[in-house]
Amino acid sequence: MKQKWNFKKLVIVFFILMWIILNFSYVFATSEEPNLISQAAILMDNKTGKILYAKNQDEKMYPASTTKIMTAILTLENCHLDDLVTISYDVVMSIPDGYSSASLQVGEQLTVEQLLQLLLVHSANDSANALAEYIGGSIESFISMMNTKVHELGLSNTHFTNAFGMHDENHYTTASDLAMIMKYCIENEDFRKIAGKASCAIPATNKYGTRSYVSTNELIVPNTKNYYPFLTCGKTGYTTQAGDCLVSCSYKDDLELICVILGGKTVNNTSTRFSETKTLYEYGYDNYSIKTLLNQNDFVTTLEVKNATKDTKTLEVLANTSLEALVENSFSENDLNSEINLKENLKAPIEEGDILGNITYMLDGVEYKTDLIASHSVKKSELLNYVLKFGLGIFLFIAIYSIFFRRKTKRRRKKVKNKYL
Prior knowledge:
Elements: H1 2-28, E1 40-45, E2 51-55, H2 68-78, E3 84-86, H3 89-93, E4 109-111, H4 112-120, H5 125-136, H6 139-152, H7 175-185, H8 189-195, E5 199-202, E6 211-214, E7 231-239, E8 243-252, E9 255-264, E10 266-267, E11 270-271, H9 272-287, E12 288-294, E13 299-304, E14 314-319, E15 323-328, E16 338-342, E17 355-363, E18 366-374, H10 383-419
Antiparallel strand pairs: 1-2, 1-9, 3-4, 5-6, 7-8, 8-9, 10-11, 12-15, 13-14, 14-18, 16-17, 17-18
Helix pairs in contact: 2-4, 2-5, 4-5, 5-6
């Protein structure tokens, strides 16, 4: 009976240990890096620009209609949403067969905002040319503006030859460059809003009836098999040469990530631009998180201030702002190194909140920096002034005494001399 009871206890202990091991393994597990079918991809943290995943990120690829995010941002930067655009003959006739359009009519009038919705939601190529002609004066001038913006952003592997992504050997980009263009675009709230629409409805115009479209980006359309609730905005693209493309942005757990998929395929009736975008986002959210390196007003160091009063010379140095970093979940604070740089020859007086220097953390090639400030005011010591004043008084006393003594001595000598004459 005793042996049987011991066996039961061993079984119970065994299952408890297995439960603990499995649960802790789950907690600390790090997802394996995804193995993608798409030809090129990148996953980037928007705040820091840190790359969380990359595949052929600097290989030149065709962007197809992801080109339109550049067309959209240049439009937003160079006109107003309520500007009225009249569609020209060249705009209507310049779209090749097989490319999507919104059936814009010659002489039709739409606002810039309506054209942007057609551009980013429906991926209308005629809308892209209409905006290009309106902003640049001609489509050719607008293309020049596109490439100028590429240069301003410091991108060396991107070149545009049209406003909507029509295939051309000289119309190319990379996953890395496209992520940086998207990073720039989402700084604009109007871009975020329009590129984040699941659908759009354009009221009747002077030439055409109501237009309604669902976004080509299935990740942003609710109640679809590819819906991803954390996606905030994005733009699809496709040509035979470019394959399936998607540039997008997602927000979850205080992390805003940018994902680019180029050269995707369709597998089991699902485009890899959707399935692999979701895979990359979940890889990022499963393996990375925000770590607070410093809170605002955290104590950093102490210093002794020269020529300060005894009560105020010991000064605590504080962090001016909070510092947060994107780190792997396996990150340990023991891996954290900082560099403190204080101004030279710090002397009183110092006011509370004055900037005294800075502190820098380097993590995975990304620099995190904040100013260091004074915790309290430091008063200048008057002791030296007192010493100087006292010394000056002694000097003056000696000088006056010396002059007076010399005069008195001269008088005595003169009296003695006169006495013997």
